[in-house]
Amino acid sequence: MSSFVSLFLTMFLIFPFGQCNGRVFTFEMHHRFSETVKKWSLQKVAGPLQDWPAKGSLQYYIHLANHDRLLHGRRLFKFDGRLTFSDGNSTFRISSLGFLHYTTVTLGTPGLKFLVALDTGSDLFWVPCECGRCASTDDPTLYSSDFELSIYSLNRSLTSKKVTCSDSLCAEHSNCLGVDNHCPYSVSYVSSETSTSGILVDDILHLRTEDNEEKFVQARVIFGCGQEQTGSFLDVAAPNGLFGLGLEKISVPSILSREGFMADSFSMCFGRDGAGRISFGDKGSIDQEETPFNINPLHPTYNVSVDQIRVGTTLIDSGFTALFDSGTSFTYLADLSYTKLSESFHSQVRDKRRPPDPRIPFEYCYDMSPDANTSLIPSLSLTMNGGGQLLVIDPIIVISMQNQLRYCLAIVKSQDLNIIGQNFMTGYRFVFDREKIILGWKKFDCYDIEKIDDFPSQTVNTTHVPPAVAVVPGNDNAEKPDERTTNTHQSSFASSVYQTSYLNLINCFLASLVLLLL
Fold it and tell me: Can you give the residue ranges of the Peptidase A1 domain (predicted)?
C-alpha cells in the first residue's frame, strides 16, 4: 500500500462568459489515514493493510511527523539553530600529533572524552576501543602531559548498543557470522600501511546548541570501535580517533541530519594561527561565495570544479576538478594546470630561483632577502564553477635553512590527482552544504564570536602553534577520487606566510599522510 499523501484539493474555478453564470468545480479532500482512503486502499491490496496506524496512537503521530520531515525536505528540526560538541566548537592543531586538526568529543554514559582528528575526506568516526593494537595512551615521547587519551569500552558505557549485521549501515555483511552478530568494519589505506578495524557500535555523542540557552543534546550515532590500528594511527596521526565528516550515510553529519537534529550542513573556519571552529547545521550566509559539488553516486566526496586560475596579472583558462579536502595541508595539481600556474608564477617573481631540491616537495623556491616584501609576490585566485572567486591569502611557504630564508610556491605537482588543500582555505569559513550540494566560503575571523558563536567559547592557547606541513598524496588509484579517504587534518598559516625550518619541513613531509582507501 502506498504511504504517500492522498489529498483531494477543493478548487473553485469561476469562468464568467458575458451574462453566463460562473461554474464551480468542487472536489472532496481526505486525510491520508481517513476511513475513506483506507477503504480505497483495501480495494487495491489483497489482504490486510500493513503499517496503517490507529488514529491517535503513537505510531499515528510518528508517521505524520516522518512524513512532514520528508515533505519539507528536512526543514523541520529538533533544534532550530546550530550544534557543536559539548566541549565547545574550537578546533586546534597539535604539533606532537602530526600537525592534524583536533577537537574534543564526548561519548557514552558516563561521558568519556576523546581527542579526535577532524576529516572532511573520510566518512567513518572511530575511536580506540577494547584494543588488541592501538596507539599508546601514555608514551611521553609521543604526547604532552596535557593530553589524556582515552580507550572506549562497550561494557563501561551504560548506553552502548551493538550494531548487528542486519543493520542497513553494516557494509561488511560477507564477514558476518550471523545477522545478530556484531557488524565488523575494516578500513585500509594506501599510505604507510595505515588501517583501522573493529566493530560498529551505537552510543550517545554529547553535543550542545550554539545559542544563549546552551542546551545539551544527546544524539545516538554509529561509530567504529577501533580494536586494531596499524601504521601512522599508532603514532603520528589520529592516535585517539578520527572523526569522518564525509557524505556517506555512516558519517556523523549524515546521521545527525537524517535523525532531524540539524540541517544537512556544517561549517569549518580556518584561522591563520592554527585555531578554528566547527559548527553543525550552519548554512552560511547570503553574501558567501558558492560552487556546486560534483557528486559521484557510487562514493560521494567534496569534489569541485575550477574554471580559471589568476596568477598576478595572468588569467589561465585551465578547467579541472579537485577534491576540496581540509585534511591536506597543501594544494596538489596535475599537469597541465600545475605547469601553467607555476610557470606563470615564476615569470612574475623577481627573486632568484633556487635549483630543485629533491628533499623539498616544492619545485619553485626562491631566495628571500631579510628586507624582502611579500607584497611583490604574485597573487593567486581561483574562479570556481558558478563564478565564485577564491582568493588565496598566502600561496607561499617560507623555509628557514640555516642562515638563509627561502620561499616556495606551496603547490605540489601530482601525477593526476587534484587536491585543494588547507593552505588555500586559511582565513575563510567554509560551509559544506550537503542539502544544496554546494560549497560556500567567506573571509572570516574565527574568533568573531558575534557571527560564529552566540556563547563565550573556550580559550585556545595559540602560543606554540606549529607551522604547516606538506602532505604527499599516494599515487595508487590517483585517477579515482571517489575511492579516496583522507584523514590528515593539517595546518593553516602560522603567520602572514607559512614559515618552518628545513628539517621540520622534511620530517613532516615524510610523516604526513593523505590516506587513500585501498
Answer: 101-442
Phi, psi angle pair for 255, to nearest 5°: -65, -45
Main-chain dihedrals φ then ψ at residue 233, nearest 5 degrees? -70, -10
pLDDT at 326: 78
Pick among 3.30.70.20, 2.40.70.10, 3.40.50.300, 3.30.1360.70: CATH of 81-278: 2.40.70.10
Transcribe 160-199 into DSSP letters: -EEPBTTSTT---GGG-SSTTSBPEEEEEBSGGG-EEEEE
Question: How would residue 66 be classed by pLDDT, with cut points 50, 70 and 90?
Answer: low
CA distance 406 to 379: 18
Q: What is the per-residue pLDDT for 267?
A: 95
β-bridge partners, 199: 184, 225
The answer to whether 385 and 415 are in contact (CB under 8 A) is: no
Minimum mean pLDDT among 311-315, 389-393, 422-426: which range? Answer: 422-426
Catalogue the active-site residues. Answer: 119, 325
* Burial degree of 473 (CB within 10 A; 0-12, 13-18, 19+): buried
Mean confidence (pLDDT) of the chain: 76
Average pLDDT over residues 352-365: 89
CB 112 within 8 A of CB 150: yes
81-278 shares its CATH topology with 287-441: yes
**pLDDT (tens digit per residue) in 270-310:** 888 888 999 999 999 999 999 999 999 998 999 999 999 99
d(CA 156, CA 472): 39
Determine how many CB atoms are found less than 10 A away from the CB of residue 65.
12
Question: In the chain, where are the structural domains located?
Answer: 81-278, 287-441
CATH architecture under which domain 287-441 falls = Beta Barrel (2.40)
Question: Across 81-95, 143-157, 264-278, 477-491, which has the greatest mean pLDDT?
Answer: 264-278
| pLDDT for 236 beyond 80 | no
